[in-house]
User: Fold these one by one.
Assistant:
Number 1:
Amino acid sequence: MEAYLQHLVAQSVGIALIIVAVVAFFESLALVGLILPGTVMMATLGTLIGSGQVGLYEAWLAAGLGCFVGDWASYFIGRRFKGPLHNWKFLQRYQALLDKTGSALDRHSFATVIIGRFIGPTRPLVPMVAGMLSLPPYKFAPPNIVGCITWPPVYFLPGILAGVAIDIPAGHNSTVFKWLLLGSAALLWLTAWLLWRWFRSDKNSGDAMARWLPLARVRVLSVLGVIATAVCFVMLSKQPLMPVYGHLLWKVITR
C-alpha cells in the first residue's frame, strides 16, 4: 500500500492531496470507515509528509475537508434513512456500540462528536447516529469542525515521525537511534492505552480484555510503562543524532 501511494505521489502533488482527501472522506463515511484500514493509510500518508514528498499544511487542509464532507454525508445518511438503518442486519452486530454512542450523544453531544472522531470504531458511526437521533445541525456543526481540524495531524503524526527518521543518514548510530525511537513510540502508545483502561476501569470491567488485564495488573503495568517511557525519552535526548532529527522535524513543520 505504501509503495503504491508513493508511486502516485511521485506523479503529482495534486494527486497526492486528492488521495489524502479521499482517504479521510472514506475513513469518516458511515459504515465504510468500519472496514477501511484508514488509520494505517493516514499513517502511511504521514510518512510521505515526513519524508518531504507532501507538504504538511496542504495535506492537513485536504484531510480536514475530506473528513468534513464524510461526516456530513454520514449525518444526512443517518437523518434520511434512520428507519431502514435500524432494521439493517449488518448494523445489528454493532448494536451495543450504537446504543452507547446514542446515549453519549444525548448527554454530551459536543464532547461525543469530538472524542468520537479520534476513536476508530466510533469515527464513522457518531455522525450517522447524530443524524438518526435528529441532532440539530447547529449542535453538530461546531464540534464537528473542531474535530475535523484537530484530527488529521494526530493521525499523521506517527507517519511523520517515521518519515523524518528515514531521512537520517545511514550508519551504525542511526540504526540504534531509529530502533530507540521506534521503541519509545511503541512504549508511549502502549502506556497511553494502559492509562486509558485504568481511567475507564469501571466501564471496561465487562469486556473480554478485562479477563487478561484486571485492574490490579493494569495499574502495575501502567506505572512500569510510564517509567520505561520516561527512561527511553531520556536516552533519546542524549543521542548525538537527536539534534539532527529535531532539525529535520522542524523543517517539515515550517515548510
Note: The first helix runs from residue 2 to 11.
Number 2:
Amino acid sequence: MQVGNARYRTGADIPDVVAVFPLRGALLLPGGKLPLNIFEPRYLEMVEAAISSKRIIGMIQPHIQPDEEESDELDETAKPPLSKVGCLGRITTFSETGDGRILITLEGICRFRVLEEVHCRRPYRQCRIAPFLTDLEDARDAANIDREALLRAFRDYLEVHNLEADWDSISRAGNETLVNALSMMSPFGAAEKQALLEAADLKTRAATLIAITEMMLAKIRDDYSSRLQ
C-alpha cells in the first residue's frame, strides 16, 4: 500500500501503539482521503506529535449505544468507549490557518482492531492495535462486485435528492476506488458507517452499501407515499 511518500508492506511497517481520533460519523477506508479541520487543543497536540513522527493517526468512532443513535450529542470529555475497529491514516497534507487551526488530509492505510487502550499522560487517547494486513494488498475481489447494481443504487439516491454527480469521473474509477469513495461520502449514520468499515472484503462492502442505500430509498418512498394519503 503506497500512501503519500510512504509504503506499507508488512506489519513491521505499522506501529503497535497509535494515537486515535474518536469522531462520530467519520469514515476512513484504505486508499481513501479524509480532510479534517483540527481545532481542539488535545487534537492539535496529537497532530503535531504525529507530524513530527510517522504521521499516523487512527480514525475511530465512539461506540454507539442504541439509545444514542438518534442524538448527535456526545460528551467526549467522558472518554466514551471506542468501537473495536478503526482505520489508520497517514497525514499527507497539512497547513496552518493562522487562527490556531490545522487543516490536514488523512489517507487511509489499513483498518485495525483495538486490543487495548493505553493509559498515558498525553491529553489524547492511544491504543494498542492489530492491523488488518490484508488491507495492504491489492483487493483481489475488485472484479467481483456488482458494479451495475452499485451505480444504479447511487443514481437512484441522487435522483431522489435532486443531486448531480460527475459521471465521467465515476465511469473511469476502478471498482475498489468506486466502492470506497461512495462508502466514505455516503450520508449515512454512525452505525451504517461502522458496518461499511467492518465489511470483511470489498465485495461485502459493496453489497452492504447497496443494501443500506436501497433500504434508505425504500424508507424515503414510503414516507412520501404516506404523506400523500
Note: The chain is about 35% helix and 25% strand.
Number 3:
Amino acid sequence: MELGHVVVLAGGMSFEREVSLRSGRRVTAALRALDIPVVLYDTDASLLDRLTNDPPDVVFPVLHGATGEDGSVRGVLELLGLPYVGARPDACRIAWDKPAAKTVVRRAGLCTPDSIALPKEVFHDLGAGAVLDRVIGVLGLPLFVKPTRGGSALGTSVVRRAQDLPAAMVGCFAYGDAALIERHVEGTEVAVSVIELADGPHALPAVEIVAPDSRYDYTARYDAGDTEFVTPARLSPAAAARATEAAVTAHRALGLRDLSRTDLIVDADGEVHFLEVNVAPGMTETSLLPRAVKAAGLDLGTVCHDLLLRRFP
C-alpha cells in the first residue's frame, strides 16, 4: 500500500501557531526522509481550495491550540470526505475541555487533583476576593492555575501564597475565558505518549520532565537546554506500570484514536495523578512524543507513516 499524496496541516492563528509550524516542519521532514510525497499546508483561507482541487490521500493535522485541538478543523476535513490521523471531532471537544476530560477519566477510575473551573464572568460578578478566599479554604495551597482550554503551558502558574492567586488568575484569563484551579500535587512530572498499532493503543516510555525551578512553562518547553528530560522516567517499576496504564485508560475513556499524550504527576507514594491529555502532541525537536518514540527504539517518520496508513482508505 503506497501513499501518493499526503498533507500535513500546521500553523493556524492560535497562540500556539509558531509551535505548530515547527511541529509540522518536523513531521514533513521525517516523512520526506522515507520518500513519502508530502506537502505542508498552513491553515488559512486558501486551505479549502487546495484540499478540494488536489485532494490528498490522507491528512496529518499537527495543529496546536484552538480549532486545531477542539475538533473544528477535523470536522471540516470530514465535511470534505478526507481521511486524517488523530481523534475525531467529538472526542477532541471533550479532551480539549480540561474539566470535562477530568470528569471522564475520573469515572474511568483514574485519580485527578480536586479542582474548580471559574469563568471570567463568575470570577468578576461574585467578587474576586470572596471567591478566591473560598477556593483556598476548600482546596488549600499550593494550587495550579491554567486555562480550561489551551496548551503549551500558556497562562499557567503554581500558586504557593494566597496573595499570589489574583495575579495568577489575571495571567490565566489573558489566554482564555475560564480558569481551572486545581490542587497542586508535588511529585515527578511525566508525559506518557500513546500510539495505536494494529492490536490497539500502546504506551511509549514515560518521559520525566525536570524543569528549571520546577516551572515547565512555555519557554522551558520549547527552548532547547532549559529543561532536562529523562527517558525512561525514573520511576519504580510499579509506578511506571501505573503511569502506562493511566495513559492508555485516558486514551480509551476519551475515545481518542491514533495518538495522544497524557500528562501525569507521580507523587512520593507512587500514586499517579492525571492532569490533562493532548490530542495533537507536539512534534518539535524538544517535544515529548518524539523523545518517547526514540526511547522506544522507533523512527518518527516510520511511526507517522504507519499512522497515515491506518487512515488510508
Note: The two ends are 10 Å apart (CA to CA).
Number 4:
Amino acid sequence: MTAFRPVNDVAVSTAGVELHYGETPVLKGIDVSLSKGKTLALLGPSGCGKTTLLRLVAGLLAPTKGSISIAGQVVADAASGAFAPPEKRNLGMVFQDYALWPHLTVGGNVSFPLEMRGIGRADRKARTMRALERVGLQAYADRRPSDLSGGQQQRVAIARAIVAEPQLILFDEPLSNLDRELRENMVGELAELITSLGLTAIYVTHDHSEALTLADDVAVMRGGLIEQLASPDKLIASPATPEVADFLRLGGIADLECRDDLWFFKGSDVALLRHEGRTGNVVRVLIPTSAISAGEIAPGRLAATVLRSQFRGDGHLATVALVGPSNVELQVLSRAKLRAGEGVGLSIDPTQVHCFGNTVLSFNQEISQHA
C-alpha cells in the first residue's frame, strides 16, 4: 500500500474511480473529497451506484480504474494493484439491518470488534462502556438486542462502529427498515449524534430528506455518475440539472421559448416572463413549489387543472397541469385540499424561477397570459 502526505484535512478521497462488471460499467469516473469531521451523503435511486461506491471505500470491492485514499493513505489503486482489505482501513460500518447478533448482549455486540483485534478483557470492557455511554445506552449493556426498540438497536450498531475509534464511519441506509414515524424521528437524532461525536461519515440513502438533514455535502448520483455534489442549501437553491431538481422534488420542469420579448411555455401562447433580448432561444427551467400560490382563476393568473393531491405535514401538495401548454405539471402547496379535476389560478414569483444552463432570465413582468 502506497502512502502519501495528507492534503489539508481530507479524510477520504476518490480519483477517477470506475467499476465494471464484465463489459457493464457500474461507476463511470467518481471524484469526491470529504474533510475530517464532515458527513457526505450519497443520494440517488436504486441502481445508481451509491452502495457500490460505499463498498469500494469499505474495501469490499476493488475498483476497475482509479484510486481511493483514506487519511492520506492510498487504500486502493487499480493502476498499481495496491489494495488494503477492510480490516486495514480503520473504519466502522452501520448496516441496513444493523447486523446485531441476537445471542450476544448489547455489550457483547459492541465489544466484538475489540475482541477480534485481540484487545484485553479489562480494556475491552472499559472501551465498550465508553462507547455505549456516548450513545446513551450504558444502562443497557446486559440486555439482548431483542429487548430494545428499533432506534435503540440502531444506536447499538453505532456504538459498535465507533468502539475502536475509527477514522471513518460508513452508513448503508441505516434507517430504511424503520417505520415512517420512527425514521423521521431518528433522522434528527442521528444527525445530532454524528455531530456530537465528531464523526467523519459517508451516508448512503435514497431518501432526499434524510440526506439534506444529515449531510454537510450531498452527492446526487444517477447512472453511475455524480450529477451534482454540493451543500444541501446549494442543491435546493441551484440544482445543476433537471434530473437533480426532479429527484429532489423541488418543483415542476418546463421548457420556455422566447418570442416577441416574452418567454412562452414551449408550443403554447401562454407567457410566463418578459425578456428583452434574442428571439428563438429555448431554455429549460425549474418552477419551484415555493414560488407558486393557488387561488381562483382570474386575469393575470395561469389557469391550471388539479391532477392529484396528497397531505403533507405543512399542507396539501397538489400536482396541477397548466391549461394551454402540453405536458407541463407543477406542484403547489395549499392549506386547503385541492380536488382532482378542480380548476385553479396560479400566481408565480418569477424571481424564484431557476434556469438551467447559462441563460439569464429577466423579471420585468410577473405573468402575462395570452389566449
Note: Confidence is low (pLDDT under 50) at residues 1-6, 364-371.
